[in-house]
Amino acid sequence: MVDFSLTEEQTSLRDMARKFAKGEMAPHAAECDRAGRFPEEIYRKAWELGLMNLNVPTEFGGSGLGLFEQCLIVEELSRACAGMTTSIIANCLALEPILLGGTDEQKHRLLDPFCASYHLASFCLTEPSGGSDAGSLKTRARRDGDHYVLDGEKCFITNGPFASLYTVFATLDPSLRHKGIVAFAVPRETHGVVPGKEEEKMGHRASATSTVRFEGARVPVANRLGAETEGFSIAMRTLDQTRTPIGALATGIAQAALDHAADYSKRRQTFGKPISEHQAIQIKLADMAQALHAARLLTWQAAWTIDHGQPGSLESAMAKCFASDAAMRVADEAIQVFGGYGYMKDYPVEKLLRDAKLAQIYEGSNEIQRIVIARELLARYA
Amino acid sequence: MTGVLVLLERHAGAIAAASCEAVGVARSIANGGPVVGLLVGPGGAAGATGLGVDRVLLAESPNLDHPSGAQLAVLLAAAADAASSTTIVVPGTARGRDLVGRVAVRWNASAATNVTEVATSGSGALRVTRPVFGGRATEELELPGPRQVLALKPHAFSPPATSPAPTPVEPLALPEGLAKAPALDVRGFQPTVGGKGPELGDASIVVSGGRGVGTPEKFQVVEDLAEAFGAAVGASRAVTDAGWRPASYQVGQTGKAVSPQLYIAVGISGAIQHIVGMVSSRVIVAINSDPQAPIFRVADYGIAGDLFAIVPALTQAVRAARSH
Amino acid sequence: MEIAVLVKPVPDAETRLRPDAKGLALDPEGVKWVLAGYDESAVEQALLLKEAAPGTTVRAISYGPVARAEEVLRSALALGCDAATSLEAPPEAPTDAVSVARALALALTKHPASLVLCGKQAGDDEGGIVGPAVAELLGLPDLGVATNVRWDGGPGGLTMERSVEGGLEQGRTALPALVALQQAWNDPRTAKLPNILKSRKAPIERIPAAEVAAAMAPSAATAPRRLGFRLPPPRTGAKMIEYKTPEEAAEKLVRILREEAKVFP
Ligand SMILES: Cc1cc2nc3c(=O)[nH]c(=O)nc-3n(C[C@H](O)[C@H](O)[C@H](O)COP(=O)(O)OP(=O)(O)OC[C@H]3O[C@@H](n4cnc5c(N)ncnc54)[C@H](O)[C@@H]3O)c2cc1C
Ligand SMILES: Cc1cc2nc3c(=O)[nH]c(=O)nc-3n(C[C@H](O)[C@H](O)[C@H](O)COP(=O)(O)OP(=O)(O)OC[C@H]3O[C@@H](n4cnc5c(N)ncnc54)[C@H](O)[C@@H]3O)c2cc1C
Question: What ipTM, to 2 d.p.?
């Protein structure tokens, strides 16, 4: 049966995330955006409250939430600051390959520290030569006794400068394409792991993004995740899990934009009345509300589908793609509602547009999502 | 005829202003009946004369130096019975308010705190009005007779004029229950030192100045008024942009959003960017020389005039009223 | 030590206030009921004392319609309280402070505590009556509205500070006692996610409505009757003060702030 009402448990999780977002994140969002500051104190608090390793099962000390609950939380966090949210949920992305490919021994050994104290992890797939075409990655892994030796460079790595563990995808032989890709868990202290400096970004400026270089880094075989042939599949299945929360992140941005725009429209007066009484503004608000609502419902449905054991590739691609496009549109219109003030950094809406943009790009660009959607779709007409 | 008993609280030897206000209220609901004051503790009847009560009951004992809520509740109930009072009014002080629940139970009375309006209604009942939800709403209650106990909201009532007539003082026989009531063991007291004012974000009163103040030096008139009120100081962006006062003073869209009980805007025109930061204040007062200034559209009370004449006079008047 | 914390469900701070159809109370339609702000401070105080004195247990107690009371009790459990008791409101659900105090006292006679903590007042009716009334009913000393409550381990050792007119008083009492907490002075913690999940499944003791009604009955005759619940009228522009001299303007404004607006400090 279709049921859109939240359980009491879901409501209390959402309320708790909302309280944290409002109380701890929102007050620092503008400042961190302006300065490009990585607010580690906020991330620590998020960890303390259990908001960080949402997807790690309770048996390994994580929060063990379903995707639906993760999405409820991510939307609330993102409403306050999408950039901080990206850094908070990066552990979910980085630890998922361990959950998917790791043995029980590896899970305990690698995940326990994350649940015992505050640590960040990074997911290292993208390379300077290409992100969308992950099958052609160039970072090399060479077997040497009971170690592998890694050489290459990853880029745009969220939390790269601050991570204590990297999940890294490297190839044994580029000519094997997908089949040559192996997944590893690489501790930061491994000799030859060199994080780069923080990039200057358009948005998500409270999050840190950097390159991570591997210069002959020796990784024990015990840290290989899955079989030698399984790396690509682990990467893709990881993204199948984490794509939907990006839909929630985008929905949170859209919600924030609508909140600001509706509120402002009732206060700003032109031609003797609040602009909310001009039909042109009402139409904008109505369209924004529809886009937001549709984004949320697609996200919820994708999460529900995956929580019910189906792959959900089509649903999650639709959710991520639609919600991020919606967030761009809604943030854009919010600026328009604010007029000149919307264009000023003093006001919160221009940040939303800059933040929304990333959701169209990372975790599989929207072009790639549309390719996936079309492929899934056309397969049904075979 | 209904008699009313008033708890007379003394601070540093003088009867608290809040108790004087309680006497005025007691008189207004006594319908010609006696208004009796209760004084507790060592210190005799000092300060009791001239308050406007018909007589004073004095509960004197050295171990009532720091009476506990439980002890005061016993004394109030006994005094009210001795004076045939049907209503007890306590001042809206920290100590006074803590008594209402105890007296309500001990004396089997109908109770209300934080009362801002009170009137008699038929058959011994009282109708009271009190703010709820932080002043965002008010509720009206009927307190059935025959017995009520009220605490007033501090400074919501004017004190009555003092009368020179001497007030008879009678000792209150200490009731039996007093010995059983748990005592309070007060170990120390630190008087509040007049330090810096409250923080802008959580002050209950904010006084803000705008470009109309003219220069950084003259901004002092705004700060003097704030000090008289015990208020936090705010400013419009015109003031902070000009560097007259630090950016942390700014109220508005890009400054702090405040919602105090009272917001006083001095020489501020009322641009929307300022208004969004203060419009949810409970009561807004504007002082501006331009009677057409938009700030008057969101204010509850306005004074059109030169701030340099009005504000110093207001500072004086506030100081006088508060030192009462 | 056994600590009891009295917690009240109040409308969330963002609730849009609206009178009900009869104009007598807040319209409960769509209201989200949460742990009152002052009560959060009381829970925090209880947890601080518990952390300082291992072996301490904390029971949260709430009165109200079952769904509301249990929602705030779950919040208290998620924050770290050990047990919870819900006093089921009788059908007519009296809300006057003394009746509520009698209900809470009933729970406290079932679960005697050496320290009873509550908020200074609730965020909705702002009465401040319930705590002292409970103390009177149980014959406990109450320390008024306090901050910085500390227990030095023995039965004679609770110290606290309370802010009174003109200064800060330091006091001490033997246990058992009741203390009302000032809001937010102790920076109440946020519940952790796993504890929220656990609290959803935790048992809550329920004292049935009939028993609660019997406990409340003695104060039925003194319960205040509601006559109205009003919102301030929308602003229609400032009332301009007429004056001849600045002094006159100032005096008029002071009088208005005192007598009409009731905001004079
Ligand atoms: C702030 C930030 C954080 C990031 N965090 C991480 C991280 O933690 N870990 C990680 O591994 N990566 C991360 N990324 C990388 C991100 O996932 C990639 O940027 C993304 O996958 C796109 O890859 P690319 O930038 O190399 O673009 P390209 O792959 O070069 O694509 C360029 C353009 O071509 C389009 N395109 C590519 N192929 C096709 C095609 N077949 N058909 C149609 N159009 C196509 C793309 O959609 C895009 O518009 C992050 C990126 C950013 C900006
Ligand atoms: C992006 C942006 C963000 C902004 N954010 C904020 C913000 O957060 N907060 C904010 O306050 N503003 C903000 N502003 C500025 C806002 O638009 C106004 O410019 C500002 O509030 C004006 O300040 P003011 O009222 O002090 O000055 P003015 O508008 O110059 O008003 C001065 C007033 O003083 C009165 N006056 C002059 N002399 C006297 C006298 N002797 N006695 C009595 N009255 C006198 C005048 O009649 C006039 O009404 C923002 C603007 C922008 C563009």
Answer: 0.91
